[in-house]
Amino acid sequence: MSFAVPTSLSPSRVDAFTSCPMAFRFASIEKLPEPPSPHATKGSLVHRALELLFTHPADERVGEVVEWSFRRAVDEYAVDPEFVLLGLDAAAAQAFVDDAWTLVQAYLRMEDPTRVRDIGLELRLEAQVGDLTLRGIIDRLELGPEGELIVTDYKTGRSPSLAYEQRRLGGVHFYSFLCESVLGQRPAAIRLMYLRSGETITAVPSEQSVRFITTRTTAVWKAVEKACTTGDFRPRQGPLCSSCAFQTWCPAFGGDPERARVEAPEAFGRLAAA
Fold it and tell me: What is the pLDDT of residues 180-201, one digit of tens each?
């Protein structure tokens, strides 16, 4: 069986394919529905709260405005399927919200939002590399002290190990490429703010690192193209298998990938109707 070859890639999709081609097939090629995860939903909620905070003038990003931004985000997510389908009871939902608030407070301990010169929030950028479109969303684009571009990316999970950090920085340079391609200026720095631990990892893009992105992404896309043509998306077992929504249909666990096309939407439908 062959599949249509995608015409665009994002940093998350590049990571997804290199982590497990089979999971990539289910999610990105066949576009099968997945139940939301508490960690991803909480991250989305915190990102939304910070986005709302930065829609206010710099000198107002304190006190009641912080609380208002968070409560507005909570209210929005209360009716969002990404949260509703988690099926949390009242106690679990309150614990979820309380933990999200601790992450917002952790952010405030890491930097003073009144001093940030933001020029873009949840900024969607795309650039062409041959026939391939590269896409990405920048959490926050700002101006540094000398007017230079700085990209900030919020992370609500645990800070990474050294090996995983290097993979994360690959995505960082992806954003550098997009900024340079679309805005005509390479960022002076890209910051990953790990709110859970209070750590900030800063990368300084170079011409070589940005050039490497086109080389790596093109190589990944060619591998995706080959897999789509041959239908050979091989599973790659690892730590993420235990939380994979498609494990039931993964051949590494005795499943049949061809049944996923029917059974995954049915399972999601039952979840949505519960």
Answer: 999 999 999 989 999 999 999 8
